[in-house]
Write a structure and sequence with these properties.
By secondary structure, this protein is mainly alpha-helical. It has eight helices and two strands, in the order ααββαααααα.
Length: about 140
């Protein structure tokens, strides 16, 4: 299953009550393609997250594709949301994308606990570092 685009997610998200927003994030996490357990290593672990989050980049035809997973449903949904802003783009496109601004309409800091959102900057930093390395 592929993730919907960010604008479609935002349109749905705006209409939902807080509890339903949680469910939407959980559903987004479920839509991530499965990440093989063999890729869930210390090297792919995102530091600073309250839950375990793994992100593994692949490159095909100049586009970056990320596999990701988390051991917490909401956090898995958050990484899915982050990836929606950058998935299958070139390194240059990713570096030109203001990921924080793309996520701003979701107001995650006010919608979720600080424990759930503390790792988002680290997720974004890892994605940017990968794009920087591969540009």
């Amino acid at each position: 299953m592929t993730l919907p685009n960010l604008a479609d997610i935002e349109a749905d998200y705006e209409l939902l009550e807080p509890d339903d927003r949680y469910r939407l994030l959980i559903d987004l996490g479920r839509a991530l393609e499965p990440m093989p357990d063999a890729l869930k290593t210390d090297a792919t672990l995102v530091r600073g997250c309250s839950a375990s989050v793994w992100v593994y980049p692949t490159e095909l035809d100049g586009k970056l594709h990320f596999l990701a997973d988390s051991n917490a449903a909401i956090t898995k949904g958050i990484i899915a949301l982050v990836l929606t802003a950058v998935q299958d783009k070139s390194a240059e496109e990713i570096l030109a994308t203001d990921i924080e601004a793309a996520l701003e309409p979701f107001d995650l800091r006010n919608q979720l606990s600080s424990n759930r959102t503390q790792g988002i900057p680290n997720m974004i930093a890892l994605i940017r570092a990968t794009a920087e390395r591969l540009k």
